[in-house]
Amino acid sequence: MAIQAQSLVRRQTPNPPSHHLRSDSDSSDKKAAFQAALRNTGYGELTRVRLDIDDAVVTLFGEVSSFYMKQLAQEAIRPLSIGMQIDNQVHVPHRLNSPHKTE
Questions:
Q1: Is the pLDDT of residue 22 over 60?
Q2: How far is CA 86 from CA 22, 34, 55, 70, in A?
Q3: How many other CB atoms are found less than 10 A from the CB of residue 1?
């Protein structure tokens, strides 16, 4: 009986996550798809957002003019990032002459 239980345990062991089995071409295809999603937003400044894919994390880099643009970059790639974590490192510079500044 113990031998049967051990073989059942072995069969139920999950396969390694698919992101560990991806090839470099899969990663470059995914990167191209993410970049196309950023281009397809219609906002030119999002085409300057760079990205990197490492394991199951896609990291966004660059600088945009507003927090809205930062969020839009993240949301543009979200539908393509199923099963991946998004690390949004896009920078929004602090503007000293902001029209919303109160004194």
A1: no
A2: 18, 11, 11, 12
A3: 5
CB 70 within 8 A of CB 64: yes
Q: Which residue has the tokens 């029209």?
A: 99
Residue type at position 12: Q
Model-wide pTM > 0.70: no
**On the CB side of 11, how many CA atoms lie within 13 Å of its CA?**
6
Closest CA to 90 of 52, 65, 50, 62: 62
pLDDT digits (tens, 9 = 90+) for 62-80: 999 999 999 999 999 999 9
Exposed/middle/buried for 87, CB within 10 Å: 0-12, 13-18, 19+? middle
